[in-house]
């Protein structure tokens, strides 16, 4: 399949670039790929990394899920209904640009130091990205579609179900892609308290010890985790957005 | 003239560096020193790894972990911490917990930062009280402010914190159970480290730097109050303890001693974090010999 | 279903740059009759239909529809949902009314056949030709058994034969179900064949040029008669005169 | 104007909520709004905060600018040309989900510890969000528009200039919104080395000292900074997307 | 500009579910003539035009156009750019050819006037009626002075009078500039009035039913003559027979 080949070529190019840069820089801060891949395979083989991988995956996915469950419906309503948009947008604009990781102490007070705080923090950060993307997507639906719905006597809920949601779906998938990147990228932060498991923990722990090979093993694992999620998402997109492909 | 870029954390240990700059001792000794502030050890170590700074203020654990026996850097001098009294770490109990004695820490989770001086001091303090490693549990919380907040909100019952956070926590009701300033021997020190490459290539500059540093130490020790404003600013001392906070007596730069080195490397080896590294490989003696004691 | 249009006016644009589109339009549509609206391109026919469908409010005047009849509407640009298949698009109105799935499927299948779209039920609108899309839109508005049917050039993209067949089909449904219908069309022949009354609008801003009574409309044999052609010519002249004078 | 009123109401509601939560929690981790606002006004008045505000704004804006200059053209090409999309997407999918802040050592090696490293790090993180959003936007342009361009004999560049860019503009603005949020939120990271200026520095510094009032003053300033940028963006949108409003 | 269509076939869909649309179509279009294509809705007329415009490639067979003439194309759905004003849309082809701004403005203004769109130059397509949008599309393809003009139902949304006026305008331009034109239309009258040759296609998959020579096409007085009507009836019967038999 052409797709598999493209991925393979991309991976090769990335590793080669990495190798060349590592050789040129010759610095402990960028180990060579073979060192990292050997470390990665070793840790996978002896099972150490497997747990971390799955626990991080779970945290990221649950965080994204939590954010979507709230942000998508809200984004659809805020985007599609101008009166809501006017009222809610100032909140988004005031609350989005603050660094939510700094609110960690607050999150801990509210939800304790368990898993939920971690998932909540991921959800909180992803939430705004999903909200803004969904809102902007729903805003740009052509008025004629609303007219068609209206002439068919749709209730407001039906308008969301049959028009706003499917029309915004491609943008929601974009939001999902951005979320995956963000959620994984902030694991290193949310896994720096009250846990000794997870790719984020590995990264911070090795970074603290200046163990750059482990650090890059963590990064490498995250790239793979993200990649797997992206592939899944592409599958989903091919299914739910069939109508865009056939045209 | 050769330039030295030195990474500093905003702690009281780095005051002599700033004093030397303010009093123009670097110029006096004909060395160009650029001081670069960092908010945490992580960014400092990154800059060090990248070679963007030549030297830095650090702690022995961090320095040895960074080096891993590769000879990338050397501990060039001791900063604060020669005597136990200069210790800055404390194990505290949460305001809302009923822990009041060290004994009650048994079986309790203590928030620390793994593989750092924090964990080291915690182990040492508790073991000096007769605790065995399985008497207590450590819970990992990397970021200092979060650890403190968790302590104050009773998310954890105990935590190890450095000054000035320890004092702030006490002001908020936390109870000090153990302090390394009360220990029988010095547990925590700061050290000045340089990359080995720099020590080779800019040997003279480093020597001059230490002379300037020594001058600054003298100035501070002679009239500490003159530098209180600078001390409060660069040491990031909270306003509520600004006036009462004692300005420590800074020691002249001197090599990091074997006595201080041994327990640290042993702890690291026992934990499996590094392989044994010979004292002479890690610690440099060269730069103090030229030190003039002109006070 | 009596529809009463009472001194309706409408403008588009901002305060600074207003374009008047409908200028004091009044007429009534008799229950169970077909009203055809003709007029030059851009005069305001679609805008008038928007008002009748309740999609916009007039600047002044009012539109009164007795009761709360089921309305079927076909907009000029089909308004199909690209993410729904032909069958889903046609059945949408019924789905919204929570009709059960089997009944919907039956009704949709019958309509697809009548529209000559058999075999295309699972296609998306983008896979259809222009005329096929238009037939889907027609089927969708017929599916809900409307009491009032508002149609904006519903057959404009169809070839002559298909068009005639669907005109006949429409007439039959309209009579059986006693539908009150408004059809905007640019085909004078279509207006004369279908419209019990024909409303002739002027250039923008649209005023009523004349309301023509057309009692023979809907008679299948009308199309061949001489009377039919003279009617068409009369309307053509009306439009031409309005344009020139 | 209704808009100003909406913003005002939103601000009031936020401050009130904050007040209530602060009173309920009664924790140093959440000071009361009046303490923070007083501190903010004081620091603005004596000029201390003004510098920080502008330097942070500059870093954020330059980072966003740098990211856009590269990511938008790339995203347009990758989105609109299926062959490019197939080839470049694996790179995006492999490189996006890694926590780019962890690459700090690498960035420092390459660009030193000066201003450029800070701006570059912001740009790097924002880059992928813009790239993904632009790509997905350009992907969803209807084929008919391309046909129209083709019939007019447009060169590939003209297709981008007259079709792909304007059609994707609404999504690029969405990307801009997400970028603003992200860029400001990561200031706290990029301003924690080799600088003693900026809102991010204030936040990390006060956090380190558990000075929560200063911390929230920093957060508050960031919210305001973000808000100002969002308002500017809404203005720009109203101008460049006029055609969407009139319909 | 001779256009030669040689045993062209086309299908849509996947291997599993193929729909054949064009079945072995061959005919030639004489230089400087107008070729009208008619056929039932959904038979494949637009698809054939796509092939002529080079927007798709046939599955088999080939289309030969001598030289590299400037082609103007009007697709069935107008294809206007919603983010460009009327003036920008009409001038787009010229802008792409780097003509200077003043010349473009002049040409565009003249075309806007001819299309009866004066005053709408700064409007966006969404602010126009269906028929006005169609006129913009026509103007856009005329602006580039095409040597070949391919039009898919270019006048379908226009009222009868505007339509006739634009047919006359088109004829005049076509003769002056010696354009070779292909017009897909569902109006038999339009095909007979404009088409020097009329290609009649069958139901999908489209085969050629007959190629009708129509020497009187383009004669302004033709429309009134009896001969005109009998031509129309003949074509209507051709289509009907194909459908039924
Ligand atoms: N993208 C596509 N995918 C699948 N089938 C398609 C596609 N485009 C067109 N078709 C099919 O091709 C056939 C011919 O379509 P085309 O648009 O050429 O018809 P047409 O003769 O122009 O009809 P009309 O007069 O209604 O415009 C139709 O049956 C249609 O369903
Ligand atoms: N959203 C809008 N904003 C501004 N002007 C508009 C808008 N919609 C329509 N118009 C204007 O209103 C006038 C009438 O438009 P309308 O669509 O009602 O015409 P129509 O009679 O249906 O024409 P056609 O036969 O071409 O479809 C046109 O001049 C058009 O420019
Ligand atoms: Mg209309
Ligand atoms: Mg067609």
Automatic annotation (TrEMBL), chains A, D:
Key words of the record: Cell membrane, Membrane, Transmembrane, Transmembrane helix, Transport
Membrane topology reported for the UniProt record: Multi-pass membrane protein
Pfam families: BPD_transp_1
Keyword Aminoacyl-tRNA synthetase set for record: no
Transmembrane parts of this sequence: 7-25, 53-79, 91-113, 119-138, 180-203, 215-233
GO CC terms of this entry: plasma membrane
Presence of keyword Transmembrane helix: yes
Domain ABC transmembrane type-1 positions: 53-237
Primary location group: membrane
GO biological process: transmembrane transport
InterPro entries membership: MetI-like, MetI-like_sf
Annotated compartments: Cell membrane
Family: Belongs to the binding-protein-dependent transport system permease family.
PANTHER family attached to this UniProt entry: ABC TRANSPORTER PERMEASE PROTEIN MJ0413-RELATED, ALKANE SULFONATE ABC TRANSPORTER-RELATED, MEMBRANE SUBUNIT
Stated name of the protein: NitT/TauT family transport system permease protein
UniProtKB/TrEMBL annotation, chains C, E:
Superkingdom to which the source organism belongs: Bacteria
KW Cell wall biogenesis/degradation (keyword) present: no
ABC transporter domain location: 3-228
Pfam families per the UniProt record, alphabetical: ABC_tran
Coiled coil regions in record: none
PROSITE patterns assigned: ABC_TRANSPORTER_1 (PS00211), ABC_TRANSPORTER_2 (PS50893)
Top-level taxonomy: Bacteria, Pseudomonadati, Thermodesulfobacteriota, Desulfuromonadia, Desulfuromonadales
Keyword tags: ATP-binding, Nucleotide-binding, Transport
Single GO term (MF): ATP hydrolysis activity
InterPro entries in the cross-refs: AAA+_ATPase, ABC_transporter-like_ATP-bd, ABC_transporter-like_CS, ABC_transporter_ATP-bind, P-loop_NTPase
Name assigned to this protein: NitT/TauT family transport system ATP-binding protein
